[in-house]
Design a protein that fits this description.
heterodimer, A: alpha+beta, 4-stranded antiparallel beta sheet, B: alpha+beta, 6-stranded mixed beta sheet, 9 helices, 19% helix, 34% strand
Chain lengths: 400, 379
């Protein structure tokens, strides 16, 4: 508009009406939309497609709480029309129940169903919800255990567990720092490549976990789409924030690695907490030790970018808390029956964070080695593969 | 761990209470159900108020089954039929005398598609005879000439297939009485043999037409003149006689509904509505003997049964004999289309609520249970 137009005068004269014109061009499409909506709702042309089929009904179970008052479930409706819960069966018997809030459930709305059912510890139960059309939705409780209550002693015990899963291994990993400092330039590159391998493993592991969890969410949340897009967004945001003052190196890079690993440990904590809540796993000592071994490598990864520096002890302390602490928070949140869409979102954000550090570690190694081609030396590729292999092998200890 | 173990023991006790309430004695019922509730809510219920959690408020008879019941009430007016009234609602048709002196008994039955409420808040797209499930309880006398005018106002082909003695032309199968929508057919045959029978639609696929609600009772009373050796018994069975009026006769059709069409029933009942007679016990005058015409039309499950608490009965399989086929039993089993007559009395019993239910616990807990309310005299 303004580039080299000789007729500057007329162009400026047009500027005022253009202002009003843009308003009009906003109003017109909106008006058309309103018109189309009014026609659809008022004229009901869709009636022609109504063959008398019953409405589509969809019900998702989001949270469940088992306690001394019985079974409480939070459900989310996803029908084409508001859905009414008519009756509730537990183990093939109708039981009285209280719905809160009562009444028909509109698309996407939630309610709690409280059933005064004398459930049996350690045994399986099946809850079946019958709607007014006779459609049924079933929830299996494979192992009934009381939902952990959020009291102080419970939180403390979970914090100790989270410490063993998150903080202890990271601290042990960082304790290799003095040893690693003796390494030469190529050895440091090797360790960084190993870190990249470790991060690659975590990325894949967490992405799959995010898809799995988000897949259990109600269809309105579009789980897999949400995972991909929020992971991408979190990746881009962290990348932008991290590169405000140029590509991160040294302490900043270590900080980002710790953050990404922390997000992953939060996810691990969620899974452990959920296992408690659902009775799916009783965490044996061996399993916890497995997590500790698995996560020691993470400490090594955080230490790698610091090898040229002389960080103080408090620096190591906050890096440890940043990377390991979220495991504790994860267990707390996970054991309190987090809804799948929120758990999926948290995991997806973690995926983005790990992708960001993976990119930054790669870029760092590239710069250090003078170009990506040189960085992809047989030794570094071996380091990358070793990182993945170590994580995979120690992962065997913790997968059930 | 010890804490959890303690919990387990508490749960076991609660479950024990729940079992006691389905099989326990009458006097134990109220107390045991309370103990379950108080265990669950950790507080004792005030005496005399049976707690109930349903959204339609308190119910008088929730005490006998604690929280194990469907919640709410059906709208009998909207349904157009009330299971309490169905128990004694006989359709005897219109009669005239034929040239040879025999009675011609005529019935009119219409097939109609209708959405019915089979449990509180649960609607089922049924196929009905005369707007009700089960269809009208037809009642005739042995030897009558029967003429049933059947009209199909439904959306699918239908028929009436009677369990009785008739010619192949009158059988109600494809090619012999299955008619399309808008058509009419007249079934004609003699009422033989006497007994407790049924009719149902025999259009195909049979399974779908059965479980959509197309069945009903078909009772032929014995003619005392033809059974001089048991004339008294026959008279007591013959509808309309003073001897018959001494009995309290109830017709119970055991049925079930597969509301999500997965080949398994979600709701079980007698006369369609799950738990109806739990919420509305059947009043029984203590002095009068009880005769139940019991018919099983349950689809998908091989058998159904009826068990009466605190009492025993004589059973006449198919009702085709005047002496019991099984004496002094308290549980009887029927396959689909099997039926029979139960005769029992509460004369020597104290008044109170006597439970009856299928003794497949699953059926009972999915709706097939009820109560007799034995009182000194009924209104």
């Amino acid at each position: 508009m303004t580039t080299g137009d000789p007729a500057t005068g007329p162009s400026e004269a047009r500027a005022v009406p253009t202002h009003w014109a843009s308003l009009l061009w906003i109003a017109l499409p909106l008006f058309l939309l309103g018109l189309a909506a009014a026609w659809l709702i008022g004229g009901d042309p869709m009636r022609a497609f109504d063959v008398g089929a019953p409405p589509i009904e969809k019900l998702t179970f989001e949270q469940r709480i088992l306690d001394e008052t019985g079974i409480r479930l939070s459900i989310r409706a996803g029908g084409s029309e508001p859905m009414s819960i008519a009756q509730v069966q537990v183990d093939d018997a109708y039981w009285s129940f209280v719905q809160d809030p009562p009444g028909a459930l509109g698309r996407g709305s939630t309610a709690w169903i409280a059933i005064p059912y004398p459930w049996v510890l350690g045994e399986a139960h099946r809850v079946k919800i019958v709607t007014n059309t006779g459609a049924t939705f079933e929830l299996e409780i494979p192992v009934a255990v009381p939902t952990p209550a959020a009291n102080l002693s419970q939180l403390q015990r979970q914090a100790v567990l989270g410490g063993f899963v998150g903080i202890v291994p990271v601290a042990i990993g960082l304790a290799f720092f003095p040893l690693l400092r003796r390494a030469g330039r190529d050895a440091i590159a090797f360790i960084l490549a190993l870190t990249a391998g470790l991060l690659a493993f975590l990325l894949v592991d967490m992405l799959i976990e995010a898809f799995e969890v988000a897949g259990e969410a109600a269809p309105v949340f579009q789980g897999p789409v949400m995972v991909v897009l929020s992971a991408l967004l979190s990746f881009l945001c962290l990348l932008a924030v991290g590169r405000r003052h140029g590509a991160p190196t040294g302490l900043a890079l270590a900080g980002y690695i710790a953050l990404g690993i922390g997000m992953h440990n939060f996810g691990e904590g969620l899974a452990i907490g959920a296992a408690f809540a659902t009775g799916a796993a009783s965490l044996g000592t061996f399993l916890v030790l497995g997590f500790t071994l698995h996560n020691i490598t993470e400490g090594l990864g955080i230490a790698a970018p610091l090898l040229r520096l002389r960080p103080k002890l408090p620096t190591f302390a906050w890096l440890t808390v940043l990377a390991g602490g979220p495991a504790i928070a994860g267990i707390w949140v996970g054991s309190l029956a987090l809804t799948p869409q929120w758990a999926g979102l948290a995991l997806a954000i973690g995926v983005g964070a790990i992708a960001q550090v993976l990119v930054e570690v790669g870029a760092y190694v590239g710069r250090e080695q003078g170009g990506l081609k040189k960085a992809a030396s047989p030794a570094n590729v071996a380091g990358f593969a070793l990182g993945i292999a170590v994580m995979y092998a120690t992962g065997m200890l913790v997968k059930i | 761990m010890r804490h959890w173990l303690q919990r387990t023991l508490d749960r076991r006790r609660a479950l024990g209470g729940a079992l006691a309430l389905t099989t326990g004695t009458v006097t134990g019922l109220l107390t045991s159900s309370r103990s379950v509730l108080s265990d669950v809510s950790e507080q004792a219920a005030p005496a005399g108020s049976a707690p109930h959690q349903g959204h339609n408020g308190a119910m008088d008879h929730a005490g006998s089954h604690g929280n194990m019941i469907t919640v709410g009430e059906i709208d009998a007016t909207r349904n157009g039929f009330d299971p309490s009234l169905m128990l004694t609602d006989w359709e005897t048709g219109t009669t005239s005398v034929l040239a040879d002196g025999r009675t011609l008994r005529s019935f009119e039955v219409t097939a109609v598609d209708k959405e019915i409420e089979i449990a509180p808040g649960v609607f089922f797209p049924a196929w009905t005879f005369n707007d009700r499930v089960p269809g009208p309880a037809l009642r005739a006398k042995e030897g009558d000439r029967l003429r049933i005018t059947f009209r199909n106002h439904g959306s699918h082909p239908h028929s009436m297939h009677f369990h009785g003695i008739h010619s192949a032309r009158m059988d109600g199968i494809v090619g012999a009485g299955v008619i399309g929508p808008g058509e009419e057919f007249v079934y004609e045959f003699d009422a033989y043999p006497f007994g407790c029978h049924l009719y149902h639609c025999h259009a195909l696929p049979l399974k779908r037409h059965m479980h959509k609600g197309m069945y009903g009772a078909f009772v032929i009373d014995p003619d005392p003149a033809r059974h001089p050796e048991h004339a008294g018994v026959a008279r007591s069975r013959l509808h309309g006689t003073p001897e018959n009026a001494q009995w309290q006769e109830l017709v119970m059709v055991m049925n079930a509904f597969d509301t999500d069409f997965d080949g398994e029933n979600e709701f079980y009942a007698v006369n369609t509505v799950a738990h109806h007679y739990s919420r509305h016990p059947i009043p029984i005058a203590r002095s009068k003997p009880v005769r139940i015409y019991l018919i099983n039309v349950t689809e998908f499950d091989p058998i159904n049964s009826m068990h009466v608490h605190g009492n025993f009965f004589d059973y006449f399989d198919h009702g085709t004999t005047l002496t019991p086929t099984l004496k002094t039993i308290d549980t009887v089993m029927q396959c689909q289309a099997q039926r029979g007559i139960l005769e029992l009395t509460f004369k020597e019993h104290e008044t109170g609520q006597y439970m009856f239910h299928a003794h497949q616990s699953e059926f009972a807990e999915l709706g097939w249970m009820g109560m007799f309310d034995v009182v000194e005299a009924t209104a």
